[in-house]
Amino acid sequence: MNLTKSVLIFFILPLLFLATNAFAASEGGGSSPWNTWMLTWRVINTIALIGVLVYFLKKPLVNFFSERTAQIQKDLADAKEQREKAEQLIAEYQQKMAGMEKELEKMRAELRKTADSESGKVVANAEKVAAAMIESAKLTAEQEVRKAKIILKNEAVALAVEMAETLVREKIDEDDRKRIVEDYLVKVGGMKQ
Description:
The chain has helices at residues 3-28, 33-117, 120-171, 174-192. The chain is mainly α. The relative contact order is 0.04.
């Protein structure tokens, strides 16, 4: 809103209202000049108070909300980046597992060729080793995925706790702190008796 509109709304319109009120009072004799002047001063005081509040509080409020918005956007970007890293890690482990399956297929084919010339004991032994390797690889991959999920969850919880702590610190004033301390002292005093 530009300066002209502000002046029109806050000063000229109330003065026009007062002038019409004073004119109506003098014509009809319904209200005394004292009431008109009291109303005039009240309107002027209200306009002055609103002007002072707007002048002094506009910039801090705008700064606070813009900084808060920027911080939230930064936190969201960080969380998105961490999620993408975790997804990449999962994809890498899945590729490794797919590669292990191919390796195992190669090993099985070679063992089959060798098994024709050797006894069935060797084949059975190789199958056990392959299964153990697959199981070990699966367990290792699952553990790494769980570890990555736990790390992400811990970081998300830490971020949420930090944001909640910040909000609580901003919202609790001195009266609330005193009331909490007094409630605590009453509870502790009640436990000792």
